[in-house]
Structure formats: C-alpha cells, structure tokens
Amino acid sequence: MEPRPRSFYILAAFFALFLLFLYGPTLTIAVLSFQGPEGGLTFPMRGVSLHWFRDLFQEQAVGDIWGAFRRSLVLGLMVMVTTVVVSVLGGLAFRKRFQGSAILFYLIITALVIPSILVSLGVGLIFSQGGLKVHWATSGFGSQLTWTLPFGLLIMFAVFNRFDRSYEEAARDLGASPWQTIRHVVLPIIAPSLIGVALFGFTLSYDEFARTLLTAGSYNTLPLEIFGMTTNVTTPVIFALGTLTTLFSFAIIGVFLVMAWIIGRRRKRAGSDAGKGMI
Hints:
Layout: H1 6-32, H2 51-56, H3 65-93, H4 101-110, H5 116-129, H6 139-161, H7 166-173, H8 178-189, H9 191-206, H10 210-213, H11 222-229, H12 237-278
C-alpha cells in the first residue's frame, strides 16, 4: 500500500477545521443548554442538569415559544406542499418551449438575488395598501414562496431535462391517458426528486427570518420568536430551545432520507420482480 501524500493530510486537517467552524457554534449551544439551575449564558458551566429543558416546557414569562413553533410547523407544511405541486407543474410546462418562457425563467431566478428584506417589505406593503391583513398564513406564506419556489423549479428543470420520454411513449402505446401517464409513470420515477423539493421547501420555510420579518403580522414564527428572546431572556433556556430545534431539524431530514430509502427499495424490488416475470 502506497503511503498517502502530504497533501492528503493537509486537506484532511482543513476539512476538520471547516467542520469545526460549521458545527462548533451548534455544539457550544448544546453544551451550555445542560447547565445547572444556577447556570448562565457563558462558560464556565455551573453544574450539569436537564433543568433548562424542563423549564422550557413550563409557562414562560416572555414570549410564546410553542405557539411560534406550531405556526412555523404549519407554515412550513403549507409552503412544502405548494412548492412541490407548483414545481412539478412548472417543470412539466417548461418541457416544451412556449412564448415568453425565457423571460419567465429569468424572472423566477431573479427572486433568488433580490435582498430578502426588500421582498418582505414589498409583500407587507402590498397587503397593507391593498386593505388585506398582514398575517403569517397569508402574506408570510406568499413571501416565503418567493424563496422556496425558485429552488424547487430549478430542481424540477434539471430532473425533466434528463427524463427519458420513452417511458411516457410506452405508457401511451398501452392506452394510458395523459393523467394516468403522469400518475403511474412520471411521478413514481421522479419521486426521490420530489422528496428533495419537499425537504427544501420545508427547511427553507422553517428557519426563514428576513422574508417573514415584515409579513408575519402580530404573531411570530419560531425564528422571529427566538430573535425576540435574545433581547429578553438571560438564562440558558434559550440554549435548550436551540438544542431542541436543531434536533427537530435533524429528525425532519432523517424522515425524508428514510422515505427516499424506502422508495429506492421499492423501485429495486419492482425491477427485480419485472425481471423475474420476463424470465
């Protein structure tokens, strides 16, 4: 076995430092959240306990943590479903050139480079000047879609650009209607990509701050609530909240990965069964 070149160890050390820079703040918050009842917001730690996690589930003197969490969860699910549906329909539409398709594509991409706070301000002004109520489920929902839809559409454009249309032609030759072709052929094939779009939509919505700041109305989402707590809460309970929300985010990612794994297993099983049938 040949010895590893010196550059390998240099790159490995650089990658380790990158991981430390990336996850170090999260690990620091997680460690500080396990302080004792007399603990503060900085090191050194004063004891080790689950006191602040228990305190988190009690009524807080400042803010509405669990109400904000429920709003962020509902809003994330709304944005996720809408992003998946619109991205699939947009991807199907862009499979054929139509008049104005290039302009529409660039308008979609432009939403990614406009400063988020300007989008939040613009959406909030449109609702307020139009006599509509500024609310997290309406104006907040719309402003977040300007962030999630471009990502979902870009993914679908890439997926359908590589999609083999012979599967659809075979389904039509067998008498399938256009809807049956999409439902039984196209959607099962692109299912892993749909999971990716759904994960993008939910996670981008769940932690979005700038585009929700001026469009949430009287009720905060979780990122806004945490930001507000940083100026009022002086105990490690805010670190306990950060630890739980981080674990929740990893759990969501895990659920989507399991779904992708299950779909892959079913696809392999279906392929093997089809191969046995041919034999």
